[in-house]
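Dissemination and training. As part of the outreach component of the grant, students in the summer workshop were shown how a complex can be specified as a set of sequence lines and then modelled as a single object. The example used during the hands-on session is reproduced here so that future cohorts can follow it. Participants entered these lines:
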Amino acid sequence: MEHESKAVLESLDITTTGTGVAKSEDEAVAIFQSLASPVAMKVLSPEVVHKSDAGGVKLDLRDADEVRRAYREITQAFRDKKVAGISVQRMARPGVEAIVGVANDATFGPVLMFGLGGVFVEVLKDVSFRSIPISRSDARDMIEEIKGYALLRGYRGISADIEALEKLLMAISDFVIKNPDISEMDINPVFLYPDGYMVVDARIILGEPRAAPAAAIEQDLHDLFYPRSIAVIGASGTPGKLGWNVFTNLVSHKFKGMLYPINPKADEIHGCKAYPCISAVPEPVDVAIILVSAGITPDVVEECCKCGVRYIVVESAGFAELGEEGKKIELLMKDIADRYGVRLLGPNCSGIINTHCSMVQSIGIVDALSMGNIGLVSQAGVCAAGMLWGLRHIMDFGIIATIGNKLDINETDILEAVSKDENINVICMYLESVKGGRRFIDAARRITLEKPIVVLKSGRTAAGKKAVASHTASLAGNDQIFSAAFRQAGIIRARDYDHMFNLARAISKQPLPTREGVFIITYAGSLGVIAADAITDNGMRLSELEPHLLERLKSLLPDYVCGMNPVDYTFSQDAETVKRTIEIGVDSQDVGSFIVVLQAEILDSYVDTLKKIDYKGKPIIACVAGKEFAQADVIKMENAGIPVFGTPEQVADALGIMYRHQKRVAKEKS
Ligand code: ADP
Ligand code: MG
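and obtained this result:
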């Protein structure tokens, strides 16, 4: 209840109005007289969550008669409830009404919320979340993230003490960490002032103590990605079978290690000597891929463990995704693997691709791949291998890891391992859930300082509605928490597949912009204007060339061209002019990135020229309207290292995301 919660907060050095508890009219008057101030009176009851809804809050009471009347009215209104007393407390001077709260998220554990609105918070929904514990910079980000931040910073005489607010957020985070039995909490409202704040109402809800988060064990899955030998249990010589697909992929991509097909009915498959069972293989096996039916998989897992196999990849399906029966088989498998200390990937996955050791374990046939610097972690197999068929023409992957049901190795394990690989510079993830919880945030936060992570998270609409007692918990929708966790970790959240792979292409091929100025070169005025709007929408601006560079540019321009940025060459635009224009931008202190709008019909003529320019660390993205009809040339341009997008908005969106990411990393590192 409020009086108890405020006492707890006071003990943490958090300023509240305090409250006296009256059990009679006379006591209420006595407290009022001792406070020598107008008072608020409220019902105190474990059964009443929103006191004002039912007439349980009376404000600004100024004399003994008013206090007596309020006492009678409140007691009358709540005669059917268990009332612990009537609170008599100082009126706080008016301020900006804010909320600070705590809820418990199924994935990430306790989360902190900050927002504006007081009693209107559920209507305005102007709130931000972070997983607890928060850092100082998280506290600052939470405050800056809400729409009402401009109000807090100062507007028409209203403002808030941001520093005091940061301390309040940190204190609550710390308090929750030290008290695992706090399940929800609402400080609503806290009045924010130019100097300090005042907690006016508080409620702390206790529950089952949270389990301590599992200790983070640093994963070294190196040999899972670079095995010296692979056994395929259930390899088949019959086209059409999954065991044929997987083994054919390993052979046709020329895996640089030993291959052992395991099949009691075959002597050899694709020229490799076959063995009847894993124990018959004479050499040590790093990775065993299992493709037999779910029911007998635990036995096979045990056999692998006994033979000293180090990693097991279960590609078979038919486990937890089908229900209880499958779940039982999974637990059995996990037990066995744990007992032998063997790590298991899957089940229900499509293995791992590592172009740097020519290893393709996919369930579907995969065509030739080039080596690349993009890592992809995917919960679903089809998303990884299936999309490769087209994407391999315009982007190069290093490691693709599918994690399926995540029985043992989860997304966080894989993320940590992939991020350590020197061949990988950017990591994409397709996730439907996160098992690592808070550890995922901590790992990703570390990794994003060196390598950007782009996540596509689905299942956004499946937020389960549960009964909750606090405003905070009712606002803490599952998807909001994911977005907050991603922000906290510096992860870029993609809107859809195209967005994720567009960003991956841009980031893997181009450096991050370090300045907000953008130089736009176009053959079509309209596309230049759209690009200019779009970069503004994305928090960047048109760059301004220094006077001597403007002179240099003028000498390049035909007389009918007037703008200096966007530079619009109309249909006379050709490769040589674009090159000379870019070189001017490269020399400018104010240019952080380039957008070049190119003609689809002569795209080919730009490839070699643009490839040879020394951009001195400034990114370039091409915008080609109608690019889907110029595929062959788009592929050439992409292979020359210049990403090609279809609209100026897409280009500006990507550059904006890259710029903000760069800024965040620089800030976090400083
Ligand atoms: P509820 O249980 O409905 O959330 P509150 O204690 O938050 O009840 O009171 C409702 C509103 O009354 C608050 O949002 C605030 O605007 C005002 N209020 C409550 N207590 C005080 C106080 N001590 N000083 C000033 N205003 C108050
Ligand atoms: Mg309240």
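The first helix runs from residue 2 to 11. Students were then asked to discuss how this feature might be tested experimentally.
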